[in-house]
Amino acid sequence: MTTAVCALLTTIVAGGLAWLLTPPGAKVGLKLGLADLPSSRRVRARAVPTTGGIVVFLAIAVSMVVAVRFCAGAPPEFGAKLRALLLGATAVVILGMADDRMNLKPLVKLVSQTAIAVAMVAAGVGIDHMRFVLGPTIDLGWFGYPLTVLWFLAFMNALNIIDGLDGLAGGIAAITAGGLFAVSMLDPNPILFLMGAGLFGATTGFLVHNYGRGTVYLGDAGSMTLGFLLAGGAIIGAKQDAASTTLLVAAACMTVPAFDVSTSMVRRWRKGQHVMVADRSHVHHRLIRFGLSPRHAVLVLWAATVFFGGQMLALVTSHGLIYVLASYVALAIVGRILLNQRRKNLRTTERGIRDEFFYLIGAKDSVGDEKDGEEPGLRDMIVEQIRREALYRRLERNDRDQGKRRFVPPRDVQEPPQKPVEREIPVEEEIAAEERGD
Protein backbone atom coordinates (compact mmCIF):
# COMPACT_ATOMS: atom_id res chain seq x y z
CA MET A 1 0.00 0.00 0.00
CA THR A 2 1.44 3.37 -1.01
CA THR A 3 2.06 6.07 1.58
CA ALA A 4 -0.58 8.37 0.06
CA VAL A 5 -3.27 5.68 0.17
CA CYS A 6 -2.22 4.79 3.70
CA ALA A 7 -2.50 8.43 4.81
CA LEU A 8 -5.97 8.64 3.28
CA LEU A 9 -6.98 5.43 5.06
CA THR A 10 -5.61 6.78 8.35
CA THR A 11 -7.55 10.04 7.96
CA ILE A 12 -10.80 8.24 7.14
CA VAL A 13 -10.46 5.78 10.02
CA ALA A 14 -9.63 8.52 12.55
CA GLY A 15 -12.31 10.92 11.30
CA GLY A 16 -15.00 8.25 11.03
CA LEU A 17 -14.36 6.89 14.52
CA ALA A 18 -14.35 10.37 16.08
CA TRP A 19 -17.57 11.29 14.29
CA LEU A 20 -19.38 8.05 15.19
CA LEU A 21 -18.19 7.64 18.79
CA THR A 22 -18.52 11.23 20.01
CA PRO A 23 -22.33 11.15 20.64
CA PRO A 24 -22.33 7.88 22.65
CA GLY A 25 -19.18 9.04 24.42
CA ALA A 26 -21.03 12.19 25.47
CA LYS A 27 -23.82 10.13 27.04
CA VAL A 28 -21.29 8.07 28.97
CA GLY A 29 -19.60 11.26 30.15
CA LEU A 30 -22.85 12.60 31.63
CA LYS A 31 -23.41 9.34 33.52
CA LEU A 32 -19.85 9.35 34.89
CA GLY A 33 -20.00 12.99 35.94
CA LEU A 34 -17.43 14.09 33.35
CA ALA A 35 -19.32 17.23 32.42
CA ASP A 36 -18.81 20.98 32.35
CA LEU A 37 -21.27 22.46 34.82
CA PRO A 38 -22.91 25.86 34.27
CA SER A 39 -20.98 28.84 35.63
CA SER A 40 -20.13 32.45 34.78
CA ARG A 41 -17.13 31.23 32.75
CA ARG A 42 -19.27 28.92 30.59
CA VAL A 43 -21.56 29.61 27.66
CA ARG A 44 -24.39 27.18 28.21
CA ALA A 45 -26.79 26.96 31.14
CA ARG A 46 -26.71 23.15 31.12
CA ALA A 47 -24.15 20.46 31.83
CA VAL A 48 -22.09 19.59 28.74
CA PRO A 49 -20.04 16.34 28.64
CA THR A 50 -16.26 16.73 28.42
CA THR A 51 -15.50 13.31 26.95
CA GLY A 52 -14.87 14.51 23.40
CA GLY A 53 -11.13 14.50 23.94
CA ILE A 54 -11.16 10.89 25.13
CA VAL A 55 -12.94 9.85 21.94
CA VAL A 56 -10.47 11.84 19.83
CA PHE A 57 -7.55 10.09 21.53
CA LEU A 58 -9.09 6.65 20.94
CA ALA A 59 -9.68 7.51 17.28
CA ILE A 60 -6.06 8.64 16.86
CA ALA A 61 -4.70 5.56 18.63
CA VAL A 62 -6.74 3.14 16.51
CA SER A 63 -5.79 4.93 13.28
CA MET A 64 -2.10 4.79 14.22
CA VAL A 65 -2.32 1.05 14.95
CA VAL A 66 -4.00 0.53 11.59
CA ALA A 67 -1.25 2.56 9.91
CA VAL A 68 1.51 0.47 11.49
CA ARG A 69 -0.29 -2.78 10.69
CA PHE A 70 -1.23 -2.19 7.06
CA CYS A 71 1.18 0.47 5.77
CA ALA A 72 4.39 -0.99 4.43
CA GLY A 73 5.94 2.48 4.18
CA ALA A 74 6.11 2.92 7.95
CA PRO A 75 9.75 2.53 9.12
CA PRO A 76 10.55 -0.06 11.84
CA GLU A 77 11.36 2.55 14.50
CA PHE A 78 7.94 4.12 14.03
CA GLY A 79 6.31 1.38 16.12
CA ALA A 80 8.59 1.92 19.13
CA LYS A 81 8.27 5.71 19.06
CA LEU A 82 4.53 5.42 18.58
CA ARG A 83 4.11 3.10 21.57
CA ALA A 84 6.00 5.53 23.79
CA LEU A 85 3.94 8.46 22.54
CA LEU A 86 0.60 6.66 22.99
CA LEU A 87 1.55 5.55 26.51
CA GLY A 88 2.42 9.14 27.39
CA ALA A 89 -0.84 10.35 25.84
CA THR A 90 -2.75 7.79 27.92
CA ALA A 91 -1.21 9.26 31.07
CA VAL A 92 -2.21 12.75 29.91
CA VAL A 93 -5.79 11.57 29.28
CA ILE A 94 -5.99 10.15 32.82
CA LEU A 95 -4.63 13.41 34.23
CA GLY A 96 -7.15 15.41 32.20
CA MET A 97 -10.05 13.21 33.30
CA ALA A 98 -9.04 13.72 36.93
CA ASP A 99 -8.93 17.47 36.35
CA ASP A 100 -12.34 17.45 34.63
CA ARG A 101 -13.80 15.45 37.51
CA MET A 102 -12.09 17.00 40.55
CA ASN A 103 -10.73 20.35 39.31
CA LEU A 104 -7.10 19.77 40.28
CA LYS A 105 -4.93 22.59 41.57
CA PRO A 106 -2.71 24.23 38.92
CA LEU A 107 0.50 23.17 40.68
CA VAL A 108 -0.62 19.52 40.77
CA LYS A 109 -1.35 19.63 37.04
CA LEU A 110 1.99 21.25 36.25
CA VAL A 111 4.00 18.74 38.28
CA SER A 112 2.13 15.83 36.67
CA GLN A 113 2.65 17.22 33.18
CA THR A 114 6.36 17.68 33.90
CA ALA A 115 6.67 14.07 35.08
CA ILE A 116 5.06 12.82 31.86
CA ALA A 117 7.34 15.01 29.73
CA VAL A 118 10.42 13.73 31.59
CA ALA A 119 9.24 10.16 30.98
CA MET A 120 9.05 10.91 27.25
CA VAL A 121 12.63 12.18 27.28
CA ALA A 122 13.69 8.97 29.05
CA ALA A 123 11.88 6.97 26.34
CA GLY A 124 13.97 8.63 23.65
CA VAL A 125 11.41 11.13 22.37
CA GLY A 126 13.42 14.33 22.61
CA ILE A 127 14.89 17.26 20.69
CA ASP A 128 18.59 16.56 20.19
CA HIS A 129 19.41 18.96 17.35
CA MET A 130 18.09 22.12 15.77
CA ARG A 131 18.73 24.04 12.59
CA PHE A 132 16.94 27.26 11.78
CA VAL A 133 16.33 28.50 8.26
CA LEU A 134 19.64 28.91 6.35
CA GLY A 135 21.57 28.23 9.54
CA PRO A 136 23.92 25.45 10.66
CA THR A 137 22.72 22.32 12.44
CA ILE A 138 23.30 22.62 16.19
CA ASP A 139 23.79 19.58 18.42
CA LEU A 140 21.90 20.54 21.59
CA GLY A 141 23.47 17.90 23.81
CA TRP A 142 22.17 17.89 27.38
CA PHE A 143 20.30 21.17 26.75
CA GLY A 144 17.89 19.18 24.60
CA TYR A 145 16.41 17.50 27.70
CA PRO A 146 14.96 20.60 29.41
CA LEU A 147 14.05 22.02 26.00
CA THR A 148 11.97 18.91 25.25
CA VAL A 149 10.20 19.15 28.62
CA LEU A 150 9.38 22.82 28.01
CA TRP A 151 8.20 21.96 24.49
CA PHE A 152 5.68 19.43 25.80
CA LEU A 153 4.53 21.74 28.61
CA ALA A 154 4.06 24.66 26.23
CA PHE A 155 1.87 22.70 23.80
CA MET A 156 -0.24 21.03 26.48
CA ASN A 157 -0.97 24.22 28.40
CA ALA A 158 -1.36 26.48 25.37
CA LEU A 159 -4.20 24.39 23.92
CA ASN A 160 -5.68 23.85 27.37
CA ILE A 161 -5.82 27.56 28.14
CA ILE A 162 -7.27 28.65 24.81
CA ASP A 163 -10.01 26.00 24.86
CA GLY A 164 -12.79 28.42 25.73
CA LEU A 165 -15.15 28.46 22.73
CA ASP A 166 -16.77 25.75 20.64
CA GLY A 167 -14.28 24.48 18.08
CA LEU A 168 -11.42 26.81 19.00
CA ALA A 169 -8.82 24.41 20.39
CA GLY A 170 -9.91 21.57 18.11
CA GLY A 171 -9.65 23.78 15.04
CA ILE A 172 -6.19 25.06 15.95
CA ALA A 173 -5.07 21.46 16.53
CA ALA A 174 -6.47 20.43 13.13
CA ILE A 175 -4.67 23.30 11.38
CA THR A 176 -1.40 22.44 13.14
CA ALA A 177 -1.80 18.79 12.15
CA GLY A 178 -2.38 19.94 8.58
CA GLY A 179 0.83 21.98 8.73
CA LEU A 180 2.78 18.93 9.92
CA PHE A 181 1.19 16.91 7.13
CA ALA A 182 2.34 19.51 4.59
CA VAL A 183 5.90 19.35 5.93
CA SER A 184 5.88 15.56 5.72
CA MET A 185 5.46 15.72 1.95
CA LEU A 186 8.86 17.36 1.53
CA ASP A 187 11.16 14.40 2.26
CA PRO A 188 8.70 12.51 2.20
CA ASN A 189 8.53 11.67 5.88
CA PRO A 190 6.24 8.62 6.39
CA ILE A 191 6.20 8.96 10.18
CA LEU A 192 4.96 12.53 10.16
CA PHE A 193 2.76 11.81 7.15
CA LEU A 194 0.73 9.21 9.05
CA MET A 195 0.64 11.09 12.36
CA GLY A 196 -0.50 14.30 10.70
CA ALA A 197 -3.24 12.40 8.85
CA GLY A 198 -4.50 10.73 12.03
CA LEU A 199 -4.52 13.93 14.08
CA PHE A 200 -6.24 15.89 11.32
CA GLY A 201 -8.91 13.24 10.74
CA ALA A 202 -9.78 12.78 14.42
CA THR A 203 -10.02 16.51 15.18
CA THR A 204 -12.18 17.29 12.13
CA GLY A 205 -14.48 14.37 12.95
CA PHE A 206 -14.93 15.77 16.45
CA LEU A 207 -15.50 19.34 15.22
CA VAL A 208 -18.70 18.23 13.49
CA HIS A 209 -20.26 17.86 16.95
CA ASN A 210 -18.42 20.72 18.62
CA TYR A 211 -18.08 23.79 16.40
CA GLY A 212 -21.09 26.06 16.76
CA ARG A 213 -23.14 23.32 18.43
CA GLY A 214 -21.33 22.60 21.68
CA THR A 215 -23.05 19.26 22.33
CA VAL A 216 -19.74 17.95 23.71
CA TYR A 217 -16.45 19.54 24.75
CA LEU A 218 -12.83 18.41 24.48
CA GLY A 219 -12.31 18.90 28.19
CA ASP A 220 -8.89 19.12 29.78
CA ALA A 221 -8.34 15.49 28.80
CA GLY A 222 -8.77 16.41 25.15
CA SER A 223 -7.01 19.76 24.93
CA MET A 224 -3.93 18.61 26.85
CA THR A 225 -3.76 15.33 24.92
CA LEU A 226 -3.96 17.04 21.54
CA GLY A 227 -1.20 19.42 22.60
CA PHE A 228 0.89 16.48 23.81
CA LEU A 229 0.42 14.51 20.57
CA LEU A 230 1.21 17.53 18.38
CA ALA A 231 4.36 18.23 20.37
CA GLY A 232 5.44 14.59 20.25
CA GLY A 233 4.56 14.23 16.57
CA ALA A 234 6.71 17.23 15.67
CA ILE A 235 9.65 15.78 17.62
CA ILE A 236 9.34 12.33 16.08
CA GLY A 237 9.01 13.84 12.62
CA ALA A 238 12.08 15.98 13.21
CA LYS A 239 14.20 12.83 13.66
CA GLN A 240 14.21 12.48 9.90
CA ASP A 241 14.30 16.20 9.20
CA ALA A 242 17.74 17.78 9.61
CA ALA A 243 16.34 21.26 9.14
CA SER A 244 13.84 20.78 12.01
CA THR A 245 11.12 22.28 9.84
CA THR A 246 8.48 20.29 11.74
CA LEU A 247 9.39 22.07 14.97
CA LEU A 248 9.35 25.48 13.31
CA VAL A 249 6.00 24.92 11.57
CA ALA A 250 4.41 23.48 14.70
CA ALA A 251 5.63 26.45 16.75
CA ALA A 252 4.32 28.91 14.13
CA CYS A 253 0.89 27.27 14.13
CA MET A 254 0.78 27.65 17.91
CA THR A 255 1.45 31.39 17.78
CA VAL A 256 -2.11 32.32 18.77
CA PRO A 257 -2.22 30.10 21.90
CA ALA A 258 1.34 31.13 22.81
CA PHE A 259 0.39 34.80 22.49
CA ASP A 260 -2.64 34.21 24.69
CA VAL A 261 -0.58 32.41 27.35
CA SER A 262 2.15 35.08 27.44
CA THR A 263 -0.26 38.03 27.64
CA SER A 264 -2.31 36.25 30.31
CA MET A 265 0.74 35.66 32.48
CA VAL A 266 1.91 39.26 32.13
CA ARG A 267 -1.59 40.56 32.87
CA ARG A 268 -1.95 38.45 36.02
CA TRP A 269 1.55 39.32 37.22
CA ARG A 270 0.84 43.02 36.73
CA LYS A 271 -2.34 42.69 38.81
CA GLY A 272 -0.49 40.82 41.55
CA GLN A 273 -2.35 37.58 40.86
CA HIS A 274 -0.97 34.07 40.55
CA VAL A 275 0.06 33.49 36.93
CA MET A 276 -1.92 30.22 36.76
CA VAL A 277 -5.21 31.59 38.12
CA ALA A 278 -8.01 31.50 35.55
CA ASP A 279 -9.63 34.73 34.40
CA ARG A 280 -11.95 35.99 31.68
CA SER A 281 -9.63 38.13 29.61
CA HIS A 282 -8.23 35.64 27.12
CA VAL A 283 -8.02 36.55 23.47
CA HIS A 284 -11.39 34.93 22.64
CA HIS A 285 -13.04 36.87 25.49
CA ARG A 286 -11.58 40.09 24.10
CA LEU A 287 -12.88 39.39 20.61
CA ILE A 288 -16.39 38.83 21.95
CA ARG A 289 -16.28 42.04 23.97
CA PHE A 290 -15.05 43.77 20.82
CA GLY A 291 -18.38 42.73 19.34
CA LEU A 292 -17.77 39.48 17.45
CA SER A 293 -20.07 36.52 17.84
CA PRO A 294 -18.46 33.33 19.24
CA ARG A 295 -18.42 31.78 15.76
CA HIS A 296 -16.74 34.81 14.20
CA ALA A 297 -14.22 34.95 17.07
CA VAL A 298 -13.30 31.33 16.39
CA LEU A 299 -13.00 32.00 12.65
CA VAL A 300 -10.67 34.94 13.31
CA LEU A 301 -8.37 32.84 15.49
CA TRP A 302 -8.46 29.95 13.00
CA ALA A 303 -7.53 32.30 10.18
CA ALA A 304 -4.74 33.84 12.26
CA THR A 305 -3.37 30.33 12.85
CA VAL A 306 -3.46 29.64 9.10
CA PHE A 307 -1.62 32.92 8.48
CA PHE A 308 1.27 32.21 10.85
CA GLY A 309 1.55 28.59 9.78
CA GLY A 310 1.41 29.52 6.11
CA GLN A 311 4.12 32.13 6.51
CA MET A 312 6.47 29.57 8.08
CA LEU A 313 5.63 26.94 5.47
CA ALA A 314 6.44 29.50 2.79
CA LEU A 315 9.93 29.89 4.29
CA VAL A 316 10.82 26.23 4.69
CA THR A 317 9.12 24.53 1.72
CA SER A 318 9.59 24.58 -2.03
CA HIS A 319 5.97 25.54 -2.69
CA GLY A 320 6.26 28.87 -0.94
CA LEU A 321 4.00 30.86 -3.25
CA ILE A 322 1.01 28.62 -2.56
CA TYR A 323 1.37 29.00 1.20
CA VAL A 324 1.98 32.75 0.93
CA LEU A 325 -1.27 33.17 -1.02
CA ALA A 326 -3.17 30.98 1.45
CA SER A 327 -1.80 32.90 4.43
CA TYR A 328 -2.74 36.29 2.99
CA VAL A 329 -6.22 35.09 2.12
CA ALA A 330 -6.55 34.13 5.79
CA LEU A 331 -5.21 37.55 6.82
CA ALA A 332 -7.77 39.22 4.54
CA ILE A 333 -10.54 37.26 6.28
CA VAL A 334 -9.31 38.47 9.67
CA GLY A 335 -9.15 42.07 8.45
CA ARG A 336 -12.58 41.92 6.84
CA ILE A 337 -14.27 40.60 9.98
CA LEU A 338 -12.53 43.05 12.33
CA LEU A 339 -13.07 46.11 10.12
CA ASN A 340 -16.73 45.23 9.62
CA GLN A 341 -17.17 44.94 13.38
CA ARG A 342 -15.35 48.25 13.90
CA ARG A 343 -17.84 49.88 11.54
CA LYS A 344 -20.68 48.48 13.64
CA ASN A 345 -19.02 49.70 16.84
CA LEU A 346 -19.04 53.26 15.53
CA ARG A 347 -22.83 53.18 15.75
CA THR A 348 -23.35 51.17 18.94
CA THR A 349 -20.55 52.21 21.30
CA GLU A 350 -18.53 55.27 22.27
CA ARG A 351 -15.16 53.51 22.33
CA GLY A 352 -12.23 54.90 20.43
CA ILE A 353 -10.24 52.80 17.98
CA ARG A 354 -7.13 53.27 20.11
CA ASP A 355 -8.79 51.75 23.19
CA GLU A 356 -10.17 48.83 21.22
CA PHE A 357 -6.85 48.09 19.50
CA PHE A 358 -4.83 48.02 22.72
CA TYR A 359 -7.54 45.96 24.39
CA LEU A 360 -7.47 43.35 21.61
CA ILE A 361 -3.70 42.88 21.77
CA GLY A 362 -3.76 42.58 25.57
CA ALA A 363 -2.02 45.88 26.33
CA LYS A 364 -5.16 47.30 27.98
CA ASP A 365 -7.08 45.48 30.70
CA SER A 366 -10.58 46.66 29.83
CA VAL A 367 -12.71 48.62 27.41
CA GLY A 368 -14.25 50.69 30.16
CA ASP A 369 -17.65 49.08 30.60
CA GLU A 370 -17.16 46.73 33.58
CA LYS A 371 -19.60 46.95 36.43
CA ASP A 372 -18.18 47.41 39.91
CA GLY A 373 -14.70 46.75 38.58
CA GLU A 374 -15.44 43.08 37.86
CA GLU A 375 -14.91 41.24 34.62
CA PRO A 376 -18.19 40.01 33.12
CA GLY A 377 -18.74 36.28 32.68
CA LEU A 378 -18.58 34.68 29.26
CA ARG A 379 -22.35 34.31 29.06
CA ASP A 380 -22.75 37.99 29.99
CA MET A 381 -20.28 38.91 27.23
CA ILE A 382 -22.26 36.94 24.67
CA VAL A 383 -25.57 38.43 25.82
CA GLU A 384 -24.08 41.92 25.50
CA GLN A 385 -22.73 41.06 22.04
CA ILE A 386 -26.18 39.87 20.94
CA ARG A 387 -27.79 43.03 22.33
CA ARG A 388 -25.33 45.26 20.46
CA GLU A 389 -25.86 43.31 17.23
CA ALA A 390 -29.63 43.67 17.59
CA LEU A 391 -29.24 47.41 18.21
CA TYR A 392 -27.08 47.80 15.11
CA ARG A 393 -29.60 45.92 12.94
CA ARG A 394 -32.45 48.03 14.30
CA LEU A 395 -30.58 51.24 13.49
CA GLU A 396 -29.78 50.02 9.99
CA ARG A 397 -33.40 49.02 9.43
CA ASN A 398 -34.62 52.42 10.57
CA ASP A 399 -32.19 54.12 8.21
CA ARG A 400 -33.43 52.06 5.29
CA ASP A 401 -37.05 52.80 6.15
CA GLN A 402 -36.38 56.53 6.30
CA GLY A 403 -34.18 56.60 3.21
CA LYS A 404 -31.10 57.62 5.24
CA ARG A 405 -28.46 55.41 3.69
CA ARG A 406 -26.03 58.32 3.82
CA PHE A 407 -25.46 61.19 6.24
CA VAL A 408 -28.62 63.15 7.08
CA PRO A 409 -28.12 66.70 8.40
CA PRO A 410 -29.58 67.51 11.81
CA ARG A 411 -33.11 68.80 12.00
CA ASP A 412 -32.07 72.43 12.78
CA VAL A 413 -30.01 72.77 9.58
CA GLN A 414 -32.46 71.19 7.18
CA GLU A 415 -34.05 73.38 4.55
CA PRO A 416 -37.25 75.07 5.80
CA PRO A 417 -40.45 73.90 4.17
CA GLN A 418 -41.51 75.99 1.19
CA LYS A 419 -44.55 78.28 1.45
CA PRO A 420 -47.64 77.10 -0.38
CA VAL A 421 -48.03 78.66 -3.83
CA GLU A 422 -51.20 80.74 -4.26
CA ARG A 423 -53.53 79.58 -7.01
CA GLU A 424 -53.54 81.81 -10.08
CA ILE A 425 -57.03 83.24 -10.86
CA PRO A 426 -58.05 83.12 -14.54
CA VAL A 427 -58.71 86.49 -16.33
CA GLU A 428 -62.36 85.64 -17.06
CA GLU A 429 -63.10 85.20 -13.36
CA GLU A 430 -61.46 88.53 -12.51
CA ILE A 431 -63.67 90.39 -15.11
CA ALA A 432 -66.83 88.74 -13.82
CA ALA A 433 -65.91 89.74 -10.24
CA GLU A 434 -65.46 93.39 -11.25
CA GLU A 435 -68.88 93.39 -13.00
CA ARG A 436 -70.50 92.06 -9.84
CA GLY A 437 -68.75 94.75 -7.79
CA ASP A 438 -66.81 92.25 -5.68
Task: Write structural notes for this entry.
With 438 residues, the chain is mostly helical. It folds into two domains: 251 residues, no CATH class; 131 residues, no CATH class. Helices cover 68% and strands 2% of the residues. It contains 16 helices and four strands. The strands form two sheets. It has a two-stranded antiparallel sheet with strand order 1-2. A two-stranded antiparallel ribbon has the order 3-4. A hairpin with a 7-residue loop joins strand 3 and strand 4. The longest helix is centred in the N-terminal third of the chain and has 30 residues. It is globular. It starts with a helix and ends with a helix. 43% of the residues are buried.
By helix and strand content, what is the structural category? mainly alpha
Largest sheet report: 2 strands, antiparallel
Mean pLDDT: 81
Compute the number of helices.
16
Give, in spatial order, the strands making up the sheet with the most strands: 1-2
Into which percent range does the helicity of residues fall?
55-70%
Q: Outline, from the CA principal axes?
A: globular
Number of domains: 2
